[in-house]
Amino acid sequence: MREVSIRDTMSGDRRVIDPTGQVGIYACGPTVYSRIHIGNARPFVVFSLLSRFLKSEGYDTRLAINVTDINDKIYTAAAERGIPSSELAEEMTRAYFEDTGRLGLGRPDAEPLATEMVKPIVELIETLVDDGHAYESGGDVYFSVRGFDGYGKLSHRSPDDMEQGEGDDAGSLKRDRLDFALWKTHKEGEDTFWESPWGRGRPGWHIECSAMAEAELGELPFAIHGGGSDLVFPHHENEIAQSEAARGKPLAKVWMHNGMIETDATKMSKSDGNIFQLSEAIDTYGAEAVVSYLVSGHYRQPLAFGEGPLEEAVARVDRLRNFLREHGTEGTPGDVAAAAVERFRDALADDFNTPRAMVEVFDLVRRANQEEVPGAGAALAEMLGLVGLESLAEDSSDGPPQEALDLLADRVRARADRDFEKADRLRDELMALGWDVRDGSEGATLISRPDR
Fold first, then answer.
1. Of the N and C termini of the chain, which has fewer Cβ atoms inside 10 Å?
2. CA-CA distance, 444 to 286, in Å (whole number)?
3. How many CA atoms lie within 13 A of 301 on its CB side?
4. Taking the domains of the chain in order of start, what are their residue ranges?
């Protein structure tokens, strides 16, 4: 078992993960008001693979990634479509499971929905009210920020410089502008609500995650709390305040944040309209290329988005697939290949440095193409399995069946005839057979789906 360390956002220091007992990891998942974009996929990939690596090293890891299916944005988006908010949330939750499932990384150990956790959420709010850390006002319940010593320790900002971003409608109900909502009273036009000691309403976003994390991972503090760097404030800062105030203990030992996906140095976000859906990315480039792209940069750093980086990921994946088809995955790694695996694992143990780990992958490929390296394919298969690319090894000797090749030829002809409806239908038939179509500059090719 290796010593694994992660850079902690709160302290700025490396923290060694305690291998004793359960290593609980909680990562904030999406708010399901629309289909997720590739930026939402980055934390799913980072924390799924971190959990996979820790388990491979012998850690007793439990990963929970939640789904926020109670939120203002869901009400708004549902009203725009003219459907019930619960219907939209259920539709987009299914789409989220489908899209992330296509990445081939498996599922987290727990995927709690906010709608399934209202009872423990209400109980947590009651504890905060009873202890004087929260107060009711006009049917809302607010956390009293100035009553919590240490607010701002994660984001390293002064409370006086912070804005909760909850809108002007809540200002008159707060005792202090810094306070944030734990419970929101039912408003006209909101078609779903829950009963509580303060009347009908719904929980606030921040308290949902505190309650879900505790419900899934047990006694505080758990090992790692993760999510995108855009969540440091206010979301994670508020989680810390309410959980510590209620339990008298830290929420997590380590805070781990991934950088944003950026285009033209602008954070990708659904609200800004700068969107590239995960499903579209997988359809265009293949699941393996999307995963390869997402692990190409260090998780803490921003990741440039665009056609160029994704085409580069396609080229990397093709190179690895071709190597494995030529060399196979049989045998036992010899000294050279085994040493590459050890360096690869050392890189992942050192603040989950996936780009440094991938250097070992391609160094081994380069060396094995120049000279005989016993067990290079087997070593490569082990390494690729730890970064979510095991399907490259699994289908290395298994090309498309003739039925799929015939459908691909029909689709090429349909596109040439500009019969895009038929082309889309044929693509769906190929997906049902377990093959994604990648349309590139050199024509269409078939990529094995990881969920085949």
1. N
2. 12
3. 13
4. 5-258, 401-452
Closest CA to 40 of 106, 118, 116, 92: 92
CA distance 215 to 73: 25
Work out the mean pLDDT of the chain and round it to a whole number: 92
Q: Are 154 and 255 in contact (CB under 8 A)?
A: yes
Rounded mean pLDDT of 13-20?
97
Distance CA 163, CA 178 (A): 7
SS (H, E, C) the chain: CCCCEEECCCCCCEEECCCCCEEEEEECCCECCCCCEHHHHHHHHHHHHHHHHHHHCCCEEEEEECEECCCHHHHHHHHHHCCCHHHHHHHHHHHHHHHHHCCCCCCCCECCEHHHCHHHHHHHHHHHHHCCCEEEECCEEEECHHHCCCCCCCCCCCHHHCCCCCCHHHHHHCCCCCCEEEEEECCCCCCCCECCCCCCEEECHHHHHHHHHHHHHCCCCEEEEEEEHHHHHHHHHHHHHHHHHHHCCCCEEEEEEECCEEECCEECCCCCCCCCEHHHHHHHHCHHHHHHHHCCCCCCCCEECCHHHHHHHHHHHHHHHHHHHHHCCCCCCCHHHHHHHHHHHHHHHECCCHHHHHHHHHHHHHHHHHCCCCCHHHHHHHHHHHCCCHHHHHCCCCCCCHHHHHHHHHHHHHHHCCCHHHHHHHHHHHHHHCEEEEEECCEEEEEECCCC
Handedness of CA 279, 294, 7, 382 (dihedral sign): positive
pLDDT interval class at 452 (50, 70, 90): very low
Q: In terms of DSSP bridges, do strands 435-440 and 443-448 run parallel, antiparallel, or are they unpaired?
A: antiparallel
In the structure, what pLDDT confidence band is assigned to residue 398 with cuts at 50, 70 and 90? low
pTM: 0.87
| Locus of tokens 């609500």 | 193
304 phi, psi to nearest 5 deg? -65, 135
Cis link prior to 234 (omega < 30° from 0)? yes
Dihedral Cα 100, 103, 104, 106, nearest 10 deg: -30
Backbone angles phi, psi at 101, to 5 degrees: -60, -35
Q: Which of 63-77, 309-323, 355-369, 416-430 has the lowest mean pLDDT?
A: 416-430
Tell me what the mean pLDDT of segment 66-92 comes to. Answer: 97
Tokens at residue 9, please?
A: 């956002």
CATH 3.40.50.620 holds for 5-258:
yes
